[in-house]
Amino acid sequence: MGHKGKSALAVLQRNRMLWWMSLMGLVSCRVYGVLFLRRPAVLLPMDLFAIITLLVVITALFSYWNTRFLKLPDSIGLTVISLVYSLVIILAGSIFPGLVAMEKSFMGQIDFSEVLLDVMLCFLLFAGAFHTNFELLKKNISSVTVFSVLGVLISTAVIGSLTYFIFELFFTPVPWLYCLLFGAIISPTDPIAVLSILTRSGVPEDVEINIVGESLFNDGVGVVLFYLIISTVQNGIPSNVGLEVLTHLVREAGGGILLGWALGMLGFYMLRKIDHYQSEVMITLALAMGGYELASVLHVSGPLCMVAGGLVTGHRSKAKAMSRQTAEYVDKFWVLIDGLLNAMLFVLIGLELVLIEFRPVYIWGGLMAIPITIIARFLALWLPYVAMKKWIPAVNMKMIRLMTWGGLRGGLSIAMALSLKEPLPREGFVVMVFIVMAFSIIVQGLTVGKMARRLFGSQPGKK
Question: According to the model, what pLDDT value does residue 350 have?
């Protein structure tokens, strides 16, 4: 072996050694705290600042490992590292029981559902919409609307029905409405995990905007449908169920979009009157936080309010109400917010593993749910495409195939499952959603780039 070959091998071995030393060091610190510092195995209640600090430190360390060693897309790399870390903690817990107790104590102080649905989601959706190409979205609005509304409804119905029959045949029967609720939980897709991969794979912009736009809007539609099914479970099926569903969707979804547009226009007029980037950054932040809270008070869709407000701010305000310097500062601020919160979100997803009780029936249910969700995703795209081909001429079967495999599940599905209360099957749904989500992020996420290049080849001007 030549000198260069030996040097490359030495670097690879050193990188692997640093990786495992870092991971073992983090675990060893936990073990040391339990065994030698004689601290209680269960952490004392932590204040909000301490929880955020520890979470940011863990996220920063995991991000370093991914950037330094794995070099995977952030969402995939952070999820993999967090899952590996949680598995190491669980395995080490057989020797040091206090280690798992400490980890569970820390994660037990974080209400994942509340953190995502009530805090993170408004920032993530506003930032995603803010950076969306509005002109491309407007050009593809018919396909985005069809897939994000009809697609979620079809996917929910297909997943719910197939899950019902699977449990009826192989496990303890579960009411059809509960299975429909599972369909609503797992149907929304997450664009964050796949977007960077598709961008580097050089897919056409029309394909990219359909995936991003559909994911932004189907999050809002999915949340509305989720709460509607929960209300139906609690109060019974109304006699005029079709009209009730339509009225609820129009009121919540339409009201959220209208409120977001109004707030975006209010922000536009405020931003146009001043030229002070610090104040203008704060105005956009206030639009996101205040708008989400106002949507909750008015009982309209907060997620769709954020999408509409982010689109207006990112397109109209940035182009016509901000100076070049202000637009640059605002853009970088929301890039930072988006990156930090997404990193923390995918770390939290992996760390949730220590709190989940994996019973065999739940595991088998989750494994069977993987092909069910992929089939439902395909039908949710293919059926509207066949029925409405005349209204969505830009869509083709290549796009349908890529959107099917690129429809990754993320933190929103986990958060909705964790928010369930008795008598709903919370534990089983959490395990099933976690298994589907892990498969989609790791397996589909690592292979969707190859599929994109095979379907569309390399586009000029894109890397």
Answer: 87
Would you state the structure tokens that stand for residue 152, as one six-digit string?
Answer: 């979620």
* CA within 13 Å, CB half, 301: 33
Yes or no: say if 369 and 186 are a contact pair by the CB < 8 Å rule: yes
In terms of phi and psi (left: phi > 0; alpha: psi -120 to 50; beta: otherwise), the region of 342 is alpha
- 145-171, pLDDT tens digit by residue? 999 999 999 999 999 999 999 999 988
The DSSP line for 41-72 is: SSPPPPPHHHHHHHHHHHHHHHHHHIIIII--
Residue type, 149: V
CA distances to 57, 149, 194, 316, 446 from 223, in Å: 31, 12, 21, 27, 27
Domains and CATH numbers, the chain: 18-110 (no CATH), 113-456 (1.20.1530.20)
Alpha-carbon gap, residue 201 to 400, rounded angstroms? 17
Q: What is the pTM of this model?
A: 0.86
Give residues with Cβ within 8 angstroms of 367, minimum separation 6: 435
Q: Which two tokens stand for residue 293?
A: 């809270």
CB 347 within 8 A of CB 82: yes
Place of tokens 């609820």: 248
Distance of alpha carbon 293 from alpha carbon 126, whole angstroms = 13
List of residues 6+ apart from 106 with CB closer than 8 A: 43, 46, 51, 54
CB 219 within 8 A of CB 128: no
Cα-atom radius of gyration of the chain, to the nearest Å?
Answer: 23
- pLDDT tens digits along 263-279: 999 999 999 999 999 99
For residue 346, CA distances in Å to 75, 76, 193, 366, 446 come to 6, 8, 9, 20, 16
Peptide bond into 423 cis (omega under 30): yes
